């Protein structure tokens, strides 16, 4: 086996190379190699440089070792060896230097970064905190403790320039290796005791105390119930209140506590689920088609957002609308959206101009003839979609991928309007499309393998998180949304207030409750949709309140009132007495005897409705994996990430308990609204969960 850590002498400097493709993860053999090679360098070199092959220093821990017994030496012990080295050690920070990779760099005595390097402590994204000294060394190195707090509690990486600005690295150099070797030669033989961070003592002052108090409020608010960011903040505070070794011991103890927590298990589940959802199904083979130019039909909210997504990724985009006025409006909105980022520094004026230059406008379908991928984002009716695809079939070049952004409609029916159904699939973006990360890719019955692979390739190139679905009304996400919203509305009819329903679910971890979301989307949207559907009497009763609100002019935020009233200036929410009156009137008309409803029941009925419908989606083959459903709900609907997703959460509760409750509700007074999933019942009977289902079926 090739050694993953080797040494190359450059004069009196030992360059210790880490070579563990693809990202030099800190596998046990890498940890062992660093200790061995650095020990050997003590007698052969005057200084050492620690560097990574392949353009990356160390991207972090080896995720394949998660949940397994650790093999010695563990990383904290390795880093103690590095810091205690008798010769100075310089880290060459390149690529994504994250987590344990940055902790390794912190244990070195000097750090030289490449300009494109990214540095971060992302452990909180997995429900953890840095466990090898990140919360103890960073505050001892950085002049401003607020920077250490942001680094560890946010999980967001920073650029090399920012790292230099806050004092995280000593130099930024185009040739980081060469600069690191030169620095090592300069410091060789000199006293570098002041570079050992474990020797630095910190003291709490009133100013620093104030920073911690303000940070606690901010971190807690942003965490939305997640524990790890708050624990990371507390661990940084320990650096000011404990000696280094005691702080390290406490950091490690907290890490061990968090690694077995439900939240960390959920976050690691979704981490792996995202990687799995981006892979093609096992029955798909081939290579993606080449896409050099993209066509977008529609310059409204969805079409404009999709066009922005591709322009940001560097693709030339032809935008088609029915009129120049519609194009003018759409392009002006896009430019305004990009320009808002100038003040914050996210984009420059030149960057806005470059993106706008990638957009070509047209009202003529013939101008789409040179596009390799054409995505329609027009009005959501089958009649309109059919007409669009008939026209596309006439003008699109052979081999062009034809995609529909439909949220609900039958893509097989849409594809049948063309002479090339093999080139048609769904690419369902979520609004605003340039911001929302989810791309629901819908594979129609005749979609060719290379067309599906092209959609996955485009997801990667436009930085979207994909999940593959089969054709079915609403696909994965919107199909499951129906029973979720149904239960929310039923709970209001049975006695809960809109405020209680929303609060119970925001306390659970959702960013917004379902009633607030309905107001935000516009109650008239659902009203119009229901008018186009042949709903049963039972289904119509559920939405009587919402429909009455619309008919009384309460459309949601857009009209200033819906289930709630909204302040014109601040959008602050308050009770709408008229909505309360309508709710009470509808309850009386339907003969409903209201009762006290607990927050626990609100959570159970809405979350178990999602899981039960998700099981139907799985059994019908609309979703490949339960974990794909979790990805859809995390990235498209705001499900609390630290809960893992609706399917993972149900498995955490225990499918026996979930199944029992679903059966109980199906036999109760609202039983007509519950259809227990046979798959859910069988998994519960067998003592299995949705993770077991995924292992056995994918």
List keywords for this structure.
698 residues; alpha/beta; 2-enoyl-CoA Hydratase, Chain A, domain 1; N-(1-d-carboxylethyl)-l-norvaline Dehydrogenase, domain 2; 3 domains; eight-stranded mixed beta sheet; six-stranded mixed beta sheet; globular
Mean pLDDT rating: 95
General form: globular
CATH class of the largest domain: Alpha Beta
User: Describe the biggest sheet?
Assistant: 8 strands, mixed
For the terminal residues, how far apart are their CA atoms? 32 Å
In a nutshell, what does this entry contain?
It contains 30 helices and 19 strands. The chain is of the alpha/beta class and 698 residues long. The mean pLDDT is 95.
Which secondary structure elements does this structure contain, and how are they paired or packed?
Layout: E1 5-10, E2 13-18, H1 28-44, E3 47-52, H2 75-83, E4 89-93, E5 96-98, H3 100-107, E6 110-113, E7 118-120, H4 134-141, H5 145-154, E8 158-159, H6 160-166, E9 171-172, H7 176-187, H8 206-223, H9 228-241, H10 244-259, H11 262-277, E10 294-297, H12 301-312, E11 317-320, H13 324-344, H14 349-357, E12 359-362, E13 373-376, H15 382-395, E14 401-404, H16 411-415, E15 424-429, E16 438-443, H17 449-461, E17 465-470, H18 477-494, H19 498-508, H20 514-521, H21 523-531, H22 537-542, H23 544-551, E18 564-566, E19 573-575, H24 577-589, H25 599-619, H26 626-636, H27 646-653, H28 655-666, H29 678-685, H30 690-697
Helix pairs in contact: 1-2, 2-3, 3-4, 4-5, 4-9, 5-8, 5-9, 8-9, 9-10, 11-26, 12-13, 18-25, 19-25, 23-24, 25-27, 25-28, 28-29
């Amino acid at each position: 086996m090739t050694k993953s850590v080797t040494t190359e002498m450059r004069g009196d400097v030992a360059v210790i190379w880490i070579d563990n493709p693809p990202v030099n993860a800190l596998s046990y053999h890498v940890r062992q190699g660093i200790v061995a090679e650095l020990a050997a360098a003590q007698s052969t070199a005057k200084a050492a440089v620690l560097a990574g092959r392949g353009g990356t220093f160390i991207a972090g821990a080896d995720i394949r070792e998660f949940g397994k017994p650790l093999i010695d030496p563990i990383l904290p012990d390795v880093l103690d060896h590095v810091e205690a080295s008798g010769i100075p050690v310089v880290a060459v920070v390149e690529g994504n230097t994250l987590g344990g990779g940055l902790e390794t760099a912190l244990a070195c005595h000097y750090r030289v970064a490449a300009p494109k390097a990214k540095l971060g402590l992302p452990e909180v994204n997995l429900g953890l905190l840095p466990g090898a000294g990140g919360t103890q060394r960073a505050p001892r190195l950085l002049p401003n403790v607020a920077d250490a707090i942001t680094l560890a509690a946010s999980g967001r990486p920073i650029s090399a320039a920012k790292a230099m600005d806050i004092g995280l690295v000593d130099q930024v150099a185009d040739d980081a290796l060469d600069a690191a070797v030169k620095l090592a030669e300069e410091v060789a033989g000199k006293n570098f005791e002041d570079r050992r961070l474990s020797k630095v003592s910190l003291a709490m002052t009133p100013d620093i105390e104030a920073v911690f108090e303000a940070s606690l409020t901010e971190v807690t608010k942003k965490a939305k119930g997640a524990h790890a960011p708050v624990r990371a903040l507390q661990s940084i505070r320990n650096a000011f209140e404990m000696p280094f070794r005691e702080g390290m011991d406490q950091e490690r103890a907290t890490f061990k506590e968090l690694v077995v927590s439900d939240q960390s298990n959920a976050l690691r589940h979704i981490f792996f689920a995202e990687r799995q959802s981006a892979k093609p199904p096992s029955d798909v083979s081939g290579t993606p088609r080449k896409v050099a130019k993209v066509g977008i039909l529609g310059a409204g909210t969805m079409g404009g957002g999709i066009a922005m997504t591709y322009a940001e990724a560097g693709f030339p985009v032809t935008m088609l609308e029915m009129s120049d006025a519609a194009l003018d409006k759409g392009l002006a909105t896009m430019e305004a959206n990009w320009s808002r980022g100038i003040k914050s520094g996210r984009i420059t004026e030149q960057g806005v101009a470059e993106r706008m230059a990638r957009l070509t406008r047209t009202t003529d379908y013939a101008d789409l003839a040179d596009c390799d991928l054409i995505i329609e984002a027009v009005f959501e009716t089958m009649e309109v979609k059919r007409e669009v695809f008939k026209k596309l079939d006439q003008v699109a070049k052979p081999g062009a991928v034809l995609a529909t952004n439909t949220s609900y409609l039958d893509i097989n029916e849409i594809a049948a309007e063309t002479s090339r159904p093999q080139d048609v699939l769904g690419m369902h973006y979520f609004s605003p499309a340039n911001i929302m990360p989810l791309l629901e890719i819908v594979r129609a019955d005749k979609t060719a393998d290379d067309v599906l692979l092209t959609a996955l390739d485009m997801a990667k190139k436009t930085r979207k998180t994909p999940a593959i679905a089969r054709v079915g009304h609403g696909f994965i996400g919107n199909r499951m949304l129906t029973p979720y919203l149904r239960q929310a509305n039923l709970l209001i009819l049975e006695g809960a207030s809109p405020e209680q329903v929303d609060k119970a679910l925001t306390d659970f971890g959702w960013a917004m409750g379902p009633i607030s979301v309905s107001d935000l989307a516009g109650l008239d949207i659902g009203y119009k949709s229901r008018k186009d559907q042949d709903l049963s009497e039972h289904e119509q009763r559920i939405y009587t309140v919402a429909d009455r609100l619309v008919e009384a002019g309460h459309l949601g935020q857009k009209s200033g009132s819906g289930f709630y009233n909204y302040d014109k200036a601040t959008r602050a929410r308050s009770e709408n007495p008229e909505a309360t009156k309508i709710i009470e009137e509808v309850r009386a008309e339907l003969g409903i005897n209201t009762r006290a409803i607990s927050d626990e029941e609100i959570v159970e009925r809405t979350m178990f409705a999602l899981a039960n419908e998700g099981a139907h989606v799985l059994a019908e083959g609309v979703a490949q994996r339960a974990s794909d459903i979790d990805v859809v709900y995390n990235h498209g609907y705001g499900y609390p990430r630290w809960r893992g997703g609706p399917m993972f959460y149900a498995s955490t509760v225990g499918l026996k308990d979930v199944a029992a409750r679903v059966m109980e509700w199906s036999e109760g007074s609202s039983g007509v609204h519950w259809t227990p999933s046979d798959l859910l019942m069988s998994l519960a009977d067998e003592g299995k969960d949705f993770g077991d289902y995924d292992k056995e079926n994918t």
